[in-house]
Amino acid sequence: MTVELRELRRSFGGTVALDGLSLTIEQGELIAFLGPSGCGKTTALRCVAGFERPDTGAVFIDGADVTRVPANRRDAGMVFQSYSLFPNLNVRDNVAFGLRVRRRPTSERHSRAAELLELVGLGGFGERYPHQLSGGQQQRVALARALALQPKVLLLDEPLSALDAKVRVNLREEIRRLQLELGITTIFVTHDQEEALSVADRVAVLKSGRLEQVAPPAEVYDRPATPFVAEFVGTMNHLPGRVSGETVEVFGHFLPLDGAAPGEEVDVLVRPEAVRVSPSEEGRGFILASSFRGSIARLRVQLDSGGEVLADVPGHEAVRLAPGLKVDVTLVERPVLTAPRTAVAAPVEPVA
Amino acid sequence: MAGVTWRRLTLGVAAVYFLVPLAIAVWFTVYNESLGFSLGAYGRIVSAPGFGESLLKSLLLGAAVIVLVLLLALPALLAVRLGAPGLRPVLETITTLPLIVPPITYVVGIANALRGGTDALAATPFWQTLISIQDEDFPVVLVLAYVMLALPFAYRSLDTGLRAVDVRTLVEAARNLGASWPYVLFRVILPNLRSAVAGASFLSLALVMGEYTIAALMGYRTFPVWIVTVSGSDGQLSVALSVLSLGLIWLLLLTLSGAGRKSK
């Protein structure tokens, strides 16, 4: 079952939520809609679910135009950001709700509910009520409920954002496992880049209701199509550089250009893991701060020429590369993206 | 300790305030200087002409008012909450209006409208409708008037109930699972609003069981009107009736709130 969004436009009062969004989601694919709040990712999802009607444009599910089909006839299962279980029903009846609406016999409802609860790891919880469950368990039940009718599409609207960090990671892996097992076409809306990169087949990065890039996670990270994507996904250093021909000069190195440069004086975009730091008395800066993160340590290096650079070094080097140490900074040789020169060269840390 | 004493004192004063008149009323109905202790007044209620008829009429009116006021207020509240939150102050103002306008004004208004309407519609089929809503056995026109009066109470009770649940998410979850709008309303929203609905229903019923002005001035013999009529001829009987109707309403209240609490 494919889902196609064609030229979707939607505005609320003066705010444009979707500005001509076009995208096709392939059968069995898990696509993540990623972007800052207000980028239109949730509106796009709600257009697929039928809770929003686009001002112009169309939504196709499995080749059929569903733009004007009401939400209750859409055949798309949805998991919501806030806890959405029916408080007056126990877990089993929550999962079987859709079957009850369709007047299926009790025996079928109960067996299907039991099967799905088993699937999400909550077998034996059928008699409990939502208020007796943890947040993670509630979202599992919501997932089971969304899958009970074997929908063509699974829609996940930031389903993990209300959960603790640990539960979040477990549940997102479980969602991915289930999605692969069932082969269900899935749209996963999130503002958490790590979440998007770790579970999705493809990541669609949205900004102001437009698609910035849609590509597999590794490509979005390694070859961001626009400076916005580069900065939103992962951490990016902005280093002052000078373009000459097919290369750009940074810190005395000539690196090949990836795509066209916006001018002669540019910002070169470099990931912290592409920055090498080594102790050197004649170095071009010193370590300002170091934050240890287990397998890596992130160093903040103050350059003598002004500005700062973030660098990721292996965790075991954190002791040797202590704050205050004079260091030399070099870059890994690989094609780099450039952006128009900003006033101050400073690394941009994304808000996760 | 001071808190407990204070609480007991307050409760005691309130109890005296409410219970002493009640006790005296009950005593008055069962004790007579010439006859001594007797339950005769209660016996006379049942045999009094018009008792069953007027009580049944008022209960039926109450039921109709409850159904209508819920059907009117609940979808309106949901629609405003889901579709046009900006209109909430408007709804709030509209539902407060019946509290501001005195009942006597309604009576005059309704009576004028009916009289004028009967003249204007005399030649049309609507004339028959106008006559039938004033039927002595089940005056629909009273239901309509009472719905107006009950609206402020029902609205506030339901609004409080709706505040406690995430209506939008529940509605969308149910819609997503294939539920039609009526299904959403009756099987998803209502069950989660039991105590609010029970509260709204009770307030509406209490209003109907106690409303005198409109019914009396429009010439309908509802239960409250009947009580007043009867009390003129037999003092003991009328007080016995008040005690009884109080007990009856208490019973209904307990039933309704019991139904409201039985949600788990």
TrEMBL record, chain A:
User: Keywords assigned by UniProt?
Assistant: ATP-binding, Nucleotide-binding, Transport
Query: From the UniProt record, which GO molecular function terms apply?
Result: ABC-type quaternary ammonium compound transporting activity; ATP binding; ATP hydrolysis activity
Q: Name one GO cellular component term.
A: ATP-binding cassette (ABC) transporter complex
Domain of life per record: Bacteria
Q: Which residues form the ABC transporter domain?
A: 3-233
Q: What is its EC number?
A: 7.6.2.9
- Pfam families under this entry? ABC_tran, TOBE_2
Protein name, per record: ABC-type quaternary amine transporter
Query: What is the native source organism of this protein?
Result: Herbidospora galbida
From TrEMBL, chain B:
At the top level, the lineage of the source is Bacteria
InterPro entries xrefs: MetI-like, MetI-like_sf
List cellular component terms (GO): plasma membrane
Q: What is its main location?
A: membrane
Q: Where is the ABC transmembrane type-1 domain?
A: 55-256
Q: How is the protein disposed in the membrane? A: Multi-pass membrane protein
According to the record, the segments passing through the membrane are 9-30, 59-84, 96-118, 138-155, 196-217, 237-256
Q: In the UniProt record, does the keyword Transcription regulation occur?
A: no
Keyword set for this entry?
Cell inner membrane, Cell membrane, Membrane, Transmembrane, Transmembrane helix, Transport
**Keyword Protein transport listed:** no
Q: Where in the cell is it found?
A: Cell inner membrane; Cell membrane
Q: Which PROSITE patterns match?
A: ABC_TM1 (PS50928)
- One GO BP: transmembrane transport
Family matches, as PANTHER family: INNER MEMBRANE ABC TRANSPORTER PERMEASE PROTEIN YDCV
The entry sums up its family as follows:
Belongs to the binding-protein-dependent transport system permease family.
Query: What is the name of this protein?
Result: ABC transporter permease subunit
